[in-house]
Design brief:
The structure is a single chain. Helices cover 63% and strands 2% of the residues. Helix 3 crosses helix 6.
Length: 259
C-alpha cells in the first residue's frame, strides 16, 4: 500500500517538475515575449498546437515509467545493491559536489551512446521516432519519448547509483539540473550569450542550437550536456559553428541564420 502511494507521489513530483520548468520556458518564450526573443529563434516557424499536445502527452506517459524505476530503486530489495547514502559526512561536501558533476558526465556518456544506438535503422522506429516527431521542438518535447525510449532514458539513474556513491540529495540536485538543461535543449531559442559559447569551457557545453539541429536534420549532434563525445566521434553537424555564430552574433541578419 505504501509503495502504491509512493508511486503516485513520484509521478506527481515528476509531472510538477516538468510543468514548472517546461511551462515557465513556454510561457516566457512562446506566450509572453516571443517578439522580444525573435532574433534568438533557431527555426523560423513555431510548432503547432498538435505538436504541443503530442509532446505533453508522451511526456506524461514517460513519467509513469520514470516513477516505476524510482520505486524499484528505493525498494528494500534493490536499494542495498545501490551506492545511495544518507549521511553527508560519509564522504564529505567536496565529494557531494563532485558526485553531481560525475553524475552529469556519466549521463552525458550514457545519453550519447544510447542515443546513437537508437538511431540505428533497426531500432529507430521502435525506440526513438516518437521523440523525433518534433522536427522543431518546444520545451514541452523534453520528455516526449516512446515507452521503450523512456525505459532507456530512465536507465541512467540505475547506472549512476550502481556506479558511484551518491547522496540522496545529490541525486535530487541532478534530477533538477537534468530537466533544466533538457528543456533548454528543446527551447527553440539560443539563449547562451556570445562570450559563453566562445569561452574555453563554453565551447564544450552543448547548446540549444546543437540539439535543435539534431531534431531538424536527424543526423549529428547526439550529445546532451557537453560536446566531448560529438567532437571525439566527429559527429558534430558540419553547419553547427556557423548556425550558432549567427544566433549569438547580433550583427548577423535573420536571413543569414537560416542555414
Ligand atoms: Zn535523436
Ligand atoms: Zn530532443
Amino acid at each position: 500500500m505504501m509503495e502504491h502511494n509512493t508511486y503516485w507521489y513520484f509521478y506527481a513530483l515528476l509531472t510538477a517538475r516538468y510543468v514548472v520548468i517546461a511551462g515557465l520556458a513556454f510561457l516566457v518564450f512562446y506566450r509572453l515575449f516571443p517578439a522580444r526573443f525573435a532574433r534568438l529563434k533557431i527555426q523560423r516557424l513555431s510548432p503547432k498546437r498538435q505538436d504541443y499536445v503530442r509532446e505533453v502527452g508522451y511526456s506524461l506517459l514517460t513519467f509513469f515509467i520514470f516513477a516505476a524505476v524510482g520505486i524499484v530503486l528505493i525498494s528494500p530489495a534493490v536499494r542495498p545493491y545501490t551506492q545511495l547514502y544518507s549521511n553527508i559526512s560519509d564522504f564529505g561536501w567536496a565529494y557531494f559536489a563532485l558526485s553531481v558533476v560525475l553524475a552529469l558526465l556519466i549521463h552525458d556518456t550514457y545519453f550519447y551512446w544510447t542515443h546513437r544506438l537508437m538511431h540505428h535503422p533497426r531500432l529507430f522506429k521502435l525506440f526513438h521516432l516518437t521523440h523525433h516527431r518534433s522536427v522543431n521542438p518546444s520545451p514541452w518535447g523534453a520528455f516526449a519519448f516512446s515507452p521503450l525510449e523512456a525505459v532507456i532514458e530512465a536507465g541512467v539513474i540505475v547506472v549512476i547509483v550502481l556506479l558511484i556513491p551518491i547522496h540522496e540529495f545529490a541525486i535530487l540536485l541532478f534530477l533538477l539540473l537534468m530537466p533544466v538543461y533538457n528543456v533548454y535543449g528543446h527551447l527553440g531559442y539560443e539563449i547562451y550569450p556570445k562570450w559563453v559559447v566562445n569561452s574555453k569551457i563554453g565551447r564544450w557545453l552543448n547548446t540549444s542550437t546543437n540539439h535543435n539541429m539534431h531534431h531538424r536534420y536527424f543526423k549529428g549532434n547526439y550529445g546532451l550536456y557537453f560536446r566531448f563525445w560529438d567532437e571525439a566521434m566527429k559527429t558534430t553537424h558540419p553547419h553547427y559553428d556557423k548556425t550558432l555564430a549567427s544566433l549569438v552574433d547580433s550583427e548577423q541578419t535573420a536571413a543569414a541564420r537560416q542555414v
